[in-house]
Every structure is written in C-alpha cells, then in structure tokens.
Design a protein that fits this description.
Blueprint lengths: L5 H6 L41 E4 L6 H8 L2 H12 L8 E4 L18 H13 L3 E11 L4 E10 L5 E9 L2 E13 L2 E7 L11 E5 L5 H12 L11 H21 L3 E3 L4
Parallel strand pairs: 7-8
Antiparallel strand pairs: 1-2, 1-9, 3-4, 4-5, 5-6, 6-7
Helix pairs in contact: 2-3
Amino acid sequence: MPCPRSTACKVSQMESGLSMPGDGCRSGKMSAALNPYAPPQTLSTDLRSFGSRYRVDNSRTTIREFQNLSGRPIIGAIVWLAARAGLTELNGQIIDGPKALAEDQCEVDDLHDPVRSHLLSVCDSARTLGFHSPVYSVSNSTGVEVHGGAIRMLHDTGRSFLQILASASGTLMQGYEIIVSAKSTPASVFSTTNGPPNYNLSDGVTARRHLGATLNELLDYHNEMTDQINDLMMFRSFVDAGAVMDHLSTLYYRDKIARGIFVEEPEP
C-alpha cells in the first residue's frame, strides 16, 4: 500500500535542502564520478558511495514520521501499525540516488503542469524579494508515480538561497518553500519553511516552520533568525549553494540507509 499522501512522501526528500532524486534532465556538464565543488572542509559532499536507485520502505520510519508523511495522523498511524504487523507494505516507491546539484538541472520546459505552473508563479513572487538566477530540477519516481520539480534561487544579500518545491501524483499536488543559510565551521544549516514536518531532521540541521506563511513573511522570519548568527556562508553562486545542498544530501541518505528506510535497488 502506498503512502496515503504520496506527494508528501516525494516532497519530503527535499525537506532538508537537498536536491531531489529523479530520473531525468541531468545537465551532464560534469562527470558524476567527480565532486564538482571545492567546499569548506567541514562539509561532506562526496556522493560517489551511494547507489543509483533506492526502494523506499516507510514502515521503517517512526510512527510520528509516517503520520507526518501521510498528512493524516490517525489513518497514518493505522497504516503504519498494519505495515509493522506485516498486514500491508509501504515499500512500493523507487527513487534515484542522490545527485550533485551541478548535475541535477534541467530546462523549465521539462517540468510538467501543475507542478511547473506552481513553481513559476512562486518564482515570479520571489524575484520581487531579491531572489534571482533560477535553476530548475525535475524528479520522477516509479512504483508510486510522482512527478516533482524544484526551482532554486540565490538572494541579493548572498546570505541565503531559496528552494521552491512541488510534486504531483494523480490529481494531488503539494508545494512549499524553504529558505536556507549555513555555516561551514562547524557545518550547520539553518532553514525556514512554510511546509509541514515529515522525516526527522539530520544532525546539524535546524528548521523553523511557519505553516501557511507567504514567501514575504518567510523571508522576514528567516532574517530574524539569521541576524543572530555570525559567520554565515556567502552564496555568490550555485557552486557555493551546491556545496551545502550536496552536504545535506549526504546526511539525508546516510541516515535513511542506516535506518533501513532506503534500500539499494538493483538496476532493472
């Protein structure tokens, strides 16, 4: 049985600021065998040890995580307990392994509606708030069929970057935004989002949630938090932002693999 809210299961893979796993639109501008960044020493960005495909087994989550993923706490708890008892399965979705942000980009026309329309609408609003230089990514999972997309944008101040995320499965679509800042020593990531909780956060990641906040409000909340933090990294290009994104991908996949949520899948 798939996740009761399959788009939530897909969007959650982007929650910590990582690039979405998917099977299309790789730019191919850099070799996947090489780390394309020169990151600060405390960031871990080597993605070469990961597999190319993973089966998602959400019965290995905590009950609270699955309630968050499903978006329906009571039904989510019932389904999770049934899966733990062997009465149903929650391992139908197959995703790609992590890709470096530099290799996880596509053209805007490769995004499909309603995901594309939602992303571009938020992107237009973001431009009025000082965000710029959008790059696009697309993601598709099998087993549970989900089409996802993301737009990432830098901010004029250089102190943060924006992720605009959306995914759709059937007639259901989910989307939200995350603003990200970071320190390299020690490696710490600070995010502010208007999206709901899902998987537990990795160590070194702080997320403040303001459900339903507009992007303008979200930026104000994020600035209030980061104004109290010294020595933030500066994001002048996506080389800088990519180092943080790849670091988050590494943390995220390591945690899910160690817990048995992501199980490497053989090539078809």
